[in-house]
Amino acid sequence: MTQIDGHLLDPRQYAGPRQLSDHRQLPDSRSSGARTRPDAFAALFDPTTFGHVERLGIGPGWRCWEVGAGGTSVISWLARRVGPTGRVLATDIDTSWQTRAARSPLEVRIHDVAADPPPAGGFDLVHARLVLAGVSDRERALASMLRALRPGGRLLIEEPDPALQPLACPDEHGPAEELANRLRRALCALLAERGADVTYGRRLPRLLREAGLRGVESDAYFPLASPGGAALETVTLQQLRTELTAAGPATEEDIDQHLSNVATGALDVAAPPLISTWGRKA
Question: How far apart are the C-alpha atoms of 177 and 243, rounded to whole Å?
Fold first, then answer.
């Protein structure tokens, strides 16, 4: 058990027995406050994701499966990289983010990675970002992704680890930062209560090695202050404010004040570290 800023943080509290009912990341991207979350994710994490995929060697003709796509930025980039001879399959349990019909080499399909059999065909790359920590059966979902790889195929999984760095404002030098950190701890506890595993990211290297992947590597991206981080903070709190206030750790006034502080642009809001882990199927 660790003490941070006078608060006890026990990682075991974040892996409770409750399971999610809808096999998707939290918060639920179908709710009204989630409409700008894909844009915030893209602004924050796309450069990191694209850099990793580049280093894995993506090129024309590759077959890629994007698990829990949730938006178009990653799959559009993949489609451009694999070209007309490649294939990009984007799956999600809710594809309402798709605004127009996909065209070759891109295909969009409804699919639940924690419940449905993996798509056939053998993939050169399987990628999931901000998906597995929030599904109800993480072990089954990971096994499905592994089965979908062809021999020599690459798996890239990117998950946040809010418990690794639980502060919204690591530089807690005033009341605005103290409020931000109190709300972040409440949010982390709420997500854990709803079934998310907020320590999942740090375990990915071991899980991929135990699954038999070769050349497993991992790194962490920790955006400390950025417009994307502020946007993500805003839409997340707007989306979950009712549950946060009902649970008791925050009031409507607390959330309004924090959102006002974020809107000034003077608050350095950190996003949770994104742990990227990759390996190759033997």
Answer: 22
* Cα–Cα distance, 245 to 164 (Å, whole number): 25
* Cβ count near 246 (within 10 Å): 10
How much is the pTM?
A: 0.85
Q: Which two tokens stand for residue 79?
A: 């489609």
DSSP secondary structure string, 171-209?
Answer: S--SHHHHHHHHHHHHHHHHHHHTT--TTHHHHHHHHHH
* pLDDT score at 217: 98
Tokens of 264: 């000034």
pLDDT at 36: 66
Strands, DSSP E only, in the chain?
A: 2-4, 7-9, 63-67, 87-92, 106-110, 123-129, 149-160, 214-221, 274-280
d(CA 276, CA 282): 20
What's the token pair of residue 273? Answer: 């570290």
Instruction: Give which of 86, 79, 88, 78 is closest to 54, Cα–Cα.
Output: 78
Long-range contacts of 244-247 (CB under 8 A, 24+ apart): 244/183, 244/186, 244/187, 244/190, 247/186, 247/190, 247/193
Structural domains in the chain, sorted by start = 2-280 (3.40.50.150)
Task: Give the chain's residues under pLDDT 70.
Answer: 1-36
pLDDT of residue 32: 41
Q: What are residue 90's phi and psi, to 5 degrees? A: -110, 125
pLDDT for residue 24: 36
CA separation (Å) from 137 to 20, 134, 181? 9, 9, 30
278: left (phi over 0), alpha (psi -120 to 50) or beta: beta
Contact 135, 162 (CB under 8 A): no
